[in-house]
Automatic annotation (TrEMBL):
Gene3D superfamilies hit by this protein: Glutaredoxin
Cited PROSITE patterns: THIOREDOXIN_2 (PS51352)
Phylogenetic lineage: Bacteria, Pseudomonadati, Pseudomonadota, Alphaproteobacteria, Rhodobacterales
Top-level taxonomic group: Bacteria
Reactions accelerated catalytically: a hydroperoxide + 2 glutathione = an alcohol + glutathione disulfide + H2O
Top-level enzyme category: oxidoreductase
Single GO cellular component term: cytoplasm
Active-site residues, as the UniProt record annotates them: C56
InterPro entries: PRX5-like (IPR037944), Redoxin (IPR013740), Thioredoxin-like_sf (IPR036249), Thioredoxin_domain (IPR013766)
GO terms of molecular function: thioredoxin peroxidase activity
Annotated ranges, domain Thioredoxin: 1-178
PANTHER family (alphabetical): PEROXIREDOXIN, PEROXIREDOXIN-5, MITOCHONDRIAL
Pfam families reported in the protein's UniProt record: Redoxin (PF08534)
Protein name per its UniProtKB record: Glutathione-dependent peroxiredoxin
């Protein structure tokens, strides 16, 4: 993915809370399109190998959540976390992490991730197909800035993290505003 590229158009199968549904699982299916998430907004999208995994749960997701106000001050409307996990897993992970600002996007089939060129095999960890770790600033569905971890490959023996960190994106945004 390069700067200036339009995001692929896919349909995400999500579960949304519906208070009219009784019982312990008051959620219903709701399809969301790429446009639903990205049209008319300037957002951060970050993608990671899996919900509930160490780096994702300890650093990346909490870092974006904790810096939400600073990102808004830099002109960001929303922050989205995407993973090749289903909606049930993504919703439970957000709940377990106490997330209030970052919105999770389930890419259960990996279609969006594949079309982004970021689908890798992580069979060495027992994961199967997952997303390579990356982040982007998206303006009205078009990539404004791209942050990809080095070494994109199947069955990577380590888990590079730094280029897609909230600190890296915040520094980029701060520098861009200072240069104006």
């Amino acid at each position: 993915m390069k700067t200036g590229t339009k995001l692929p158009d896919v349909t995400f199968r999500t579960r949304v809370r519906d208070d009219s549904i009784e019982g312990p699982n008051p959620f219903r299916w709701e399809d969301k399109s790429t446009a639903d998430y990205f049209a008319g907004k300037r957002v951060i999208l970050f993608s990671l190998p899996g919900a509930f995994t160490p780096t994702c749960s300890t650093y990346q997701l909490p870092g974006f959540e904790n810096n939400f106000g600073e990102f808004q001050a830099q002109g960001i409307d929303e922050i989205y976390c995407l993973s090749v996990n289903d909606s049930f897993v993504m919703n439970q992970w957000a709940k377990a992490q106490g997330i209030e600002n970052v919105k999770v996007i389930p890419d259960g089939s990996g279609e969006f991730t594949r079309k982004m060129g970021m689908l890798v095999h992580k069979d060495n960890l027992g994961f199967g197909p997952r997303s390579w770790r990356y982040a982007a600033i998206i303006n009205d569905g078009v990539v404004e800035a791209w942050f990809e971890e080095p070494g994109l490959m199947d069955n990577c023996p380590d888990d590079p993290y730094g280029e897609s960190s909230p600190e890296t994106l915040l520094a980029h945004l701060t520098q861009a505003v200072a240069a104006e």
